[in-house]
Amino acid sequence: MPLLALKGVVTKCGFMNKTATVTVSKWVVHPRSKKRIERSTKYLTHDPENKLKMNDLVIIRNCPHVSARKYFVLETILHSPESVRSNGTSSAIAERPTNTSPPLLADA
């Protein structure tokens, strides 16, 4: 099997030990109407450290079969909304200035 890397979103995790479901989407052109359609495929992915969370953007790579249906392994986590929410959002809101007065307009 040739080396294959796919980018997808974690849609299910925490139900199976060391396993997460990653949905990979691609655009195809309909043969008759020539419109673009989004097609998606779900892959069971081996996550050895159980560090994936919902809605993480990840890169997965194919590998020898880990189990009957699991033949992709986690390579990298590109973006994790859970870490963004816990690290930056609450502090950014706290540092926002509280000045609510309207700006002064210059006479024209």
UniProtKB/TrEMBL annotation:
Q: Which UniProt keywords apply?
A: Ribonucleoprotein, Ribosomal protein
GO annotation (BP), single: translation
Polar residues biased stretches: 83-102
- Does Ribosomal protein count among this protein's keywords? yes
What are the recorded GO MF terms, alphabetically? structural constituent of ribosome
Q: Name one Pfam family in it.
A: Ribosomal_S17
Tell me if Kinase is a UniProt keyword of this record.
Answer: no
Domain of life (superkingdom) = Eukaryota
Q: What GO cellular component is one of the record's annotations?
A: ribosome
**Residues annotated as region Disordered?**
82-108
**Family per record:** Belongs to the universal ribosomal protein uS17 family.
Q: What is this protein called?
A: Nucleic acid-binding protein
Q: Which organism is it from?
A: Rickenella mellea
Q: What is the lineage of its organism?
A: Eukaryota, Fungi, Dikarya, Basidiomycota, Agaricomycotina
